[in-house]
């Protein structure tokens, strides 16, 4: 069975540039846009051999290996659906937290293999060890990526001294209208899959295993266009109709990933080597206002042509941005406050974007659509990469007329683990 988890396996695949963009992720709007008791012990009785063997529901290429140097779901090809969950711990025992991550690791290894959790007992007097809605389904490229928030390093568990030196709560940026129900969390879990039922099943069962140790704080589902909907496999579009993810770095470039994404042992916490820092931002789009804007205004907002995704005045979607280019009127071809120009900065500071569109239905207070972008980015250092970019965008981006940031969180995502180990063991 092919394992898509490691960078080596990605480098060994011969992919077109378009495929690389899909691997790198949907992209934001340019930049942004122990407590299971008896059940916990029963639910995660999964053998390592079961994880490494083909699963009953597996189809060729539908499994992403769970184990590896890095966690899957960071430079993994972007799947069609997202279920992101933030948890708060309800225990003050480090032993409980360690047991939770051990149980979650075994459960995640089983689910990403396409197996149900536990022994699927038929005892009518006990709850089943798995909720069962994915029985017979393929793994659907399921990935489960775990991280801990800044609040994890308070005084509850004696780990304050292990908090990475540059890792803390994100500042409030200009224009933020943050809602507490979409912010923070002790633990963040990014679940992605090509089937939403498979993704939701994973979050549901992780929450079930965590009972008595952690509770859900908030949860967001997301989507992008599926493969069958776009056989050409072009760059996905966001809900504003523009291609999204063109400028992501090439994840097949191991050196670039080392510089941009993966934390090193000297980056403030030796236990984070091989991990990455995740930023999550819930960005609501003022869709009704955007839909009444002229095409010229929309294109000048992004600095790109809507049809092709090319920089204004150019034809190739992947043409490099020319910040000195002029239009026929002698003005900058890319407006000075356009999103693509500002997000580009000096061209040297980069992040890896992995975002999904979302809809929360209708806002009952306004009668308008509650929809937008759930932005996720991975970077080696949030302070040096994400924060400077977002400060520039928050101050001057023309796109701010049409969006508002309502959610914000940051998580330190652990390095990967080996069979027999568990996620987070380098910290615990």
From TrEMBL:
Its EC number is 1.11.1.-. The keyword Oxidoreductase applies. It is an enzyme of class 1 (oxidoreductase). It catalyses: heme b + 2 H(+) = protoporphyrin IX + Fe(2+). Residues 71-224 form the Dyp-type peroxidase N-terminal domain. Binds 1 heme b (iron(II)-protoporphyrin IX) group non-covalently per subunit. InterPro entries: Dimeric_a/b-barrel, Dyp_perox_C, Dyp_perox_N, Dyp_peroxidase, EfeB/EfeN, TAT_signal. It is found in: Cell envelope. Residues 225-244 are annotated as: Disordered. It comes from the Bacteria. Its main location: other. Its cofactor is heme b. The chain crosses the membrane at residues 21-42. Residues 235-417 form the Dyp-type peroxidase C-terminal domain. Pfam families: Dyp_perox_C (PF20628), Dyp_perox_N (PF04261). SUPFAM superfamilies: Dimeric alpha+beta barrel. Keywords: Heme, Iron, Lyase, Membrane, Metal-binding, Oxidoreductase, Peroxidase, Signal, Transmembrane, Transmembrane helix. Involved in the recovery of exogenous heme iron. Extracts iron from heme while preserving the protoporphyrin ring intact. Belongs to the DyP-type peroxidase family. This is Deferrochelatase.
């Amino acid at each position: 069975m092919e394992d898509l988890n490691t960078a080596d396996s990605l480098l060994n695949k011969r992919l077109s540039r378009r495929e690389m963009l899909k691997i790198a992720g949907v992209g934001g709007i340019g930049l942004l846009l122990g407590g299971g008791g008896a059940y916990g012990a029963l639910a995660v009785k999964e053998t390592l051999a079961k994880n490494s063997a083909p699963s009953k529901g597996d189809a060729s290429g539908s499994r992403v290996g769970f184990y590896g140097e890095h966690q899957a779901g960071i430079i993994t090809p972007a799947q069609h659906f997202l279920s992101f969950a933030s948890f708060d711990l309800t225990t003050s025992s480090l032993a409980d937290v360690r047991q939770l991550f051990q149980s979650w690791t075994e459960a995640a290894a089983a689910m990403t293999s396409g197996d149900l959790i536990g022994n699927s007992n038929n005892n009518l007097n006990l709850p089943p060890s798995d909720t069962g809605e994915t029985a017979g389904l393929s793994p659907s490229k399921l990935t489960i990526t775990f991280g801990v928030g800044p609040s994890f390093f308070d005084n509850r568990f004696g780990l304050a001294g292990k908090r990475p030196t540059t890792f803390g709560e994100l500042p409030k940026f200009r224009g933020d209208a943050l809602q507490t129900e979409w912010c923070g969390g002790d633990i963040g879990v990014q679940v992605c899959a090509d089937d939403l039922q498979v993704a939701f099943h994973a979050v549901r069962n992780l929450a079930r295993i965590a009972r008595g140790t952690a509770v859900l704080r908030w949860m967001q589902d997301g989507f992008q266009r599926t493969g069958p909907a776009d056989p050409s496999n072009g760059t996905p579009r966001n809900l504003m109709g523009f291609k999204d993810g063109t400028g992501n770095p090439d994840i097949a470039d191991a050196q670039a990933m080392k510089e941009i994404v993966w934390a090193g042992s000297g980056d403030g916490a030796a236990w984070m080597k091989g991990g990455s820092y995740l930023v999550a931002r819930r960005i609501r789009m003022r869709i009704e206002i955007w839909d009444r804007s002229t095409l010229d205004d929309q294109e000048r907002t992004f600095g790109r042509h809507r049809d092709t995704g090319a920089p204004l005045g150019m034809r190739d979607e992947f043409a490099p941005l020319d910040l000195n280019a002029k239009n026929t009127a002698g003005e900058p071809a890319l407006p000075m406050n356009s999103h693509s120009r500002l997000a580009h900065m000096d061209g040297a500071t980069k992040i890896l974007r992995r975002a999904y569109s979302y809809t929360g239905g209708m806002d009952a207070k306004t009668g308008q659509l509650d929809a937008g972008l759930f932005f996720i980015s991975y970077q080696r250092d949030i302070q040096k990469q994400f924060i400077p970019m977002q400060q520039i965008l928050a101050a001057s981006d023309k796109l701010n007329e049409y969006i508002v940031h309502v959610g914000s969180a940051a998580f330190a995502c652990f390095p990967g683990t080996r069979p027999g180990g568990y996620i987070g063991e380098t910290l615990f």
